[in-house]
Design brief:
By secondary structure, this protein is of the alpha+beta class. The chain has 2 domains: about 140 residues, Fructose-1,6-Bisphosphatase, Chain A, domain 1, CATH 3.30.540; about 100 residues, D-Maltodextrin-Binding Protein, domain 2, CATH 3.40.190. The chain is about 30% helix and about 30% strand. The protein has 7 helices and 14 strands. The strands form 4 sheets. Strands 3-4-5-6-7-8-9 form a 7-stranded mixed beta sheet, sandwiched between helices. The protein has a 3-stranded antiparallel beta sheet with strand order 12-14-13, covered by helices on one side. The longest helix is centred in the first third of the chain and has 18 residues. The two termini are about 30 Å apart.
Length: about 250
């Protein structure tokens, strides 16, 4: 984890160097935006992971977009070098570097760095989760929903408001908050929110690192049928899902 955190922080430095400039934005084949920051961060992360674990394949967003898709077995890395590119473009700070290790279809460890916010979330399933900010590290864990109701986190740039309202019907909801990128999963992991329903398209690299942090903090990510979300699916697309902390 120390090595992964260091890799993420170096990638974050590359991203922030671009963030400080009048950077350009291009469109990919799926019409999603990409910047120099995405590419510079991935160019740093992938070889660093290959040096760290030469036998573990790396599935990275920009490489996949360019048609470079490795064969994956029971263990592989999932990398989103800049999750929340729309947040990066709008300069609201809510973008992240995501690195996760998947074993047997489940994320086992992950690092989520929000370089503009100065927060690094990390977790190892079975060993716990933590956040580093302001030079300090503290353990994090999901919370039991308070009596006044759930705090529900939703996407700042994506999502279907009507679908979310229908999903939440009948639940006691105290408030809804918006956040960008994989930070939504980390807010649940840190006990700052209780529920994150994602009723829209995501890719595995978007959420694997945050899923690992949440699982390490005692939470879960399930599809709408209640089945644990799995990784290494054909095409790396996710179904709609719900990330949650304690349910009692």
């Amino acid at each position: 984890m120390q090595a992964l955190a260091a890799i993420a922080r170096r990638a974050g430095d590359e991203i922030m160097a671009v963030y400080a400039t009048d950077f350009g934005v291009r469109g990919k084949s799926d019409a999603s935006p990409v910047t120099e920051a995405d590419e510079r961060a991935e160019a740093l992360i992938v070889p660093a992971l290959q040096a760290l674990a030469p036998d573990v394949p790396v599935v990275a967003e920009e490489a996949v977009a360019a048609g470079r898709v490795p064969e994956v077995g029971r263990r592989f890395w999932l990398v989103d070098p800049l999750d929340g590119t729309k947040e990066f473009i709008s300069r609201n700070g809510e973008f992240t570097v995501n690195i996760a290790l998947v074993e047997d279809g489940a994320p086992r460890l992950g690092v989520v760095l929000a370089p503009a916010l100065g927060r690094l979330f990390a977790g190892v399933v079975g060993q716990g989760a933590w956040v580093e900010e302001g030079g300090l590290r503290r353990a994090i864990a999901v919370r039991r929903p308070p009596a006044e109701g759930l705090t529900v986190v939703a996407s700042r740039s994506h999502g279907d408001a009507a679908a979310l309202e229908a999903y939440l019907a009948g639940r006691r909801v105290a408030r809804q908050v918006s956040a960008g990128s994989s930070l939504k999963l980390c807010l649940v992991a840190a006990g700052e929110a209780d529920l994150y329903p994602r009723l829209g398209r995501t890719m595995e690299w978007d959420i694997a690192a945050g899923h690992a942090v949440l699982a390490a903090a005692g939470g879960s990510v399930n599809d709408l049928g209640g089945r644990p979300l799995r990784y290494g699916k054909p095409g790396f697309d996710n179904p709609h899902f719900v990330a949650s902390g304690e349910t009692g």
